[in-house]
Design a protein that fits this description.
200 residues; alpha+beta; two-stranded antiparallel sheet; 6 helices; elongated; disordered C terminus
């Protein structure tokens, strides 16, 4: 349903801080808490956004008197919320980081068929940390047992690392982010918008 689809929310520094729904986005826009941003990076309040022709965008919602284009990116006006920089070390976030995929056999499975594996077992001095815990299917975990991947004759497909995303605005998986979001999700493009310009 269109009203439940995703809208990217930025702070005033154009950093992504949250993903919300179209329904909530219209509420923020109408209350003046946020402004919509278009493909040319122009900001619009509710009145100016609703005056735009809905035909300029492929997505719109109908009201009693007109159709209003759906905003896909909002900028908060009075709130300089900063994105969270620390990602909580949790089972859920490890599964997110590893995309519910066993890091040994690369099978993507339901979470009920996955568990966590210490790459270097705790009994051999391995830590319980982002850099030593991976998602593993039960058969691979049993095969590896209390050994390192090399000792078990297994290959760790990707070295585990601490994620750089924040759960509040983690970009959706493949195909999930709207094209209009991309300049704000890329670190290079974001730096373009956030770099202080020199006075001439």
């Amino acid at each position: 349903m269109l009203l439940d689809s995703a809208v990217l929310v930025l702070n005033r520094s154009f950093q992504p801080v949250q993903i919300t729904t179209v329904k909530r986005a219209f509420s923020l826009l109408y209350q003046g808490i946020a402004q919509a941003i278009d493909e040319e990076f122009r900001l619009f309040d509710f009145a100016s956004w609703s005056a735009l022709s809905a035909e300029l965008g492929s997505e719109s919602i109908g009201t009693c008197t007109r159709r209003i284009r759906v905003p896909r990116v909002l900028v908060l006006m009075a709130f300089d919320r900063l994105p969270r920089t620390r990602v909580r070390f949790s089972r859920h976030n490890i599964y997110l980081r590893d995309d519910d995929t066993c890091q040994y056999c690369l099978r993507k499975l339901p979470r009920s068929e996955l568990n966590l594996d210490h790459v270097v077992p705790r009994s051999r001095g391995g830590s319980t940390s982002w850099e030593n815990v991976v998602c593993s299917c039960i058969p691979c975990n049993l095969k590896k047992a209390n050994r390192t991947p090399e000792q078990a004759g297994m290959v760790l497909r990707k070295q585990p690392t601490r994620p750089r995303w924040s759960p509040a605005f983690r970009p959706p998986g493949k195909g999930g982010a709207h094209r209009s979001w991309l300049p704000f999700l890329s670190a290079v493009d974001a730096s373009y918008w956030n770099t202080e310009l020199e006075h001439e």
